[in-house]
UniProtKB/TrEMBL annotation:
PANTHER family for the chain: DEHYDROGENASE-RELATED, PHYTOENE DEHYDROGENASE
Protein source organism: Streptomyces graminofaciens
InterPro entries reported for this sequence: FAD/NAD-bd_sf
UniProt xrefs under Gene3D superfamilies: FAD/NAD(P)-binding domain
Protein's recorded name: FAD-dependent oxidoreductase
Length: 478
């Protein structure tokens, strides 16, 4: 029987382990932290309330081509949908409102903008599952669905700022900007439309669900499946060198590229080591979790029913703050994401005290305190919020890196979404999961298709590892 070691138990490490175990490989997962899950951990960050530590809302996870093959519901994973997916409030009290339905979203916009929304996102949503098969893998491949890919690519290659001009109303432009900002890139850069288009398309196809009981339910379900397949997980086992690892036919690293370079050391080819050490990380996140009595008193009624609320004001303001953080300057009014997961999953609350999940986009490695800036942004659209806060838990960029070393400088997407790194990450190679050392692979969110709890990075790396095992077996038998 072939053997494998997976270093790291985030959703990609666990997905890789499951993919290998399904093919009869004996798998051991080694996790440095006391608990599994990486970015999908959940705990009581404030007394009696369940807070997601990082990844919280999962439009691209529920539709993951790999996870959908696993029947994780059998292992306890349940998806819960809010009444409204996302709201982007404006200072006037108006808001852009994102419903699961393309038509429902379009109906909330001005007539011309609604038609344009349907024209752009109708085909993306309609072909989303086919698009996901091609887009959630290395881009250098022969597409299975060339026509939908070509149509999507025509818009995805554009800067987000160019796509935003399709709409005339601030409501529509701001709504798109808030989702496009998930790329952590200035809107004038090429391909910055891609992330916004994909997330909105995923939402219109599958909604913006949360996992019942917290995002840890995703990693718990993967771990339970792995156990059923005979795999093992060992926690509290930090790996700093290859000498610490037991013998195995393949090793997969759910780690940032620089960490892989440190562990593998001189065994890495020089060109690979240089690429891993030059791998670019993006801006950081500053997170504050609140315990809020009665929930957030949003001025806009739709925001009170939305699982996610984006705070950044009009399009031009969001574009300006994203340029600032990319340039290393902290804006007075940062872009803030607010998660109200308890609306879809009430078990996270304690009576009328609710967990509210927030983070602000901040410069890479930001060492200031953005707590008041986050509270100020919420107060801007929900006057009286401050008086409702009973407790809070703060995690700055350094705290994110301590919590998960893959989040270098607070970069929770594990790599800047530059045009090159969107196409070729973590290095220029036909097989981005290969380290250049036979039997060693990288499977973190630094590989295609990038950040998320979708497990597709792990599945892609496992496919490369399985090809290596088959080729090695054929060589031995010949």
């Amino acid at each position: 029987m072939s053997t494998a070691i997976v270093v790291g138990s985030g959703p990609n490490g666990l997905a890789a382990a499951v993919a290998l175990a399904r093919e009869g490989v004996e798998v051991t997962v080694l996790e440095a932290a006391p608990t599994i899950g990486g970015g999908t951990r959940t705990s009581e960050l404030t007394p009696g309330l369940l807070h997601d530590h990082c990844s919280a809302t999962h439009p691209m996870t529920v539709g993951s081509p790999f996870l959908r093959t696993l029947d994780l519901e059998r292992h306890g994973l349940r998806w819960r949908l809010p009444e409204i997916d996302c709201v982007h409030p404006l200072d006037s009290g108006d808001a852009g409102v994102l419903h699961r339905s393309v038509t429902g979203t379009a109906d909330g916009l001005e007539e011309r903008d609604g038609r344009m929304w349907q024209r752009l996102f109708g085909p993306v949503a309609g072909h989303y599952d086919a698009l996901a098969e091609d887009l959630m893998r290395p881009l250098l491949h022969l597409p299975k669905h060339p026509l939908p890919m070509a149509a999507f690519g025509a818009s995805a290659l554009l800067p987000a700022g160019v796509v935003a001009r399709l709409w005339r109303s601030e409501r529509a432009r701001a709504l798109f900007a808030g989702v496009a900002a998930h790329a952590f890139r200035p809107f004038h850069r090429p391909m910055t439309a891609a992330v916004g288009l994909m997330i909105i398309g995923a939402g219109h196809r599958h909604g913006w669900p949360v996992a019942a009981g917290g995002s840890r339910a995703i990693s718990d379900a993967l771990a339970a499946l792995l156990a059923d397949l005979g795999g093992r997980i060992e926690t509290g086992v930090p790996v700093r060198s290859m000498a610490q690892l037991p013998p195995a036919d393949v090793v997969l690293f759910d780690l940032a590229p620089r960490a892989v370079a440190e562990i593998v050391g001189d065994r890495l080819p020089g060109r690979v080591a240089r690429a891993y050490r030059r791998f670019r990380h993006g801006p950081g996140a500053f997170k504050v979790d609140f315990a809020v009595d009665g929930g957030v008193p949003w001025r806009n009624e739709a925001a009170r029913r939305a699982g996610t609320v984006h705070l950044g004001g009009p399009y031009d303001e969001v574009a300006h703050t994203e340029r600032m953080i990319h340039a290393g300057r902290m804006p007075t009014r940062p872009f803030v994401l607010v998660g109200q997961q308890y609306l879809a999953d009430p078990q996270r609350s304690d009576g009328d005290v609710h967990p509210v999940w927030t983070y602000a986009h901040v410069p890479h490695g930001y060492d200031g305190d953005a707590t008041e800036a986050i509270v100020g942004q919420i107060e801007r659209f929900a006057p009286g919020f401050r008086e409702r806060v009973l407790a809070m838990s703060v995690r700055p960029p350094s705290g994110f890196e301590e919590y998960n070393p893959n989040y270098v400088g607070g970069d929770i997407v594990t790599g800047a979404n530059t045009a090159l790194q969107l196409v070729m990450r973590p290095r220029i190679a036909l097989d981005p999961y290969s380290t250049g050392v036979p039997g060693l692979f990288i499977c973190s969110a630094a590989t295609p298709p990038g950040a998320g709890a979708h497990g597709m990075c792990g599945a892609g790396a496992a496919a490369s590892a399985l090809r290596h095992l088959r080729a090695t077996k054929q060589t031995v038998n010949s």
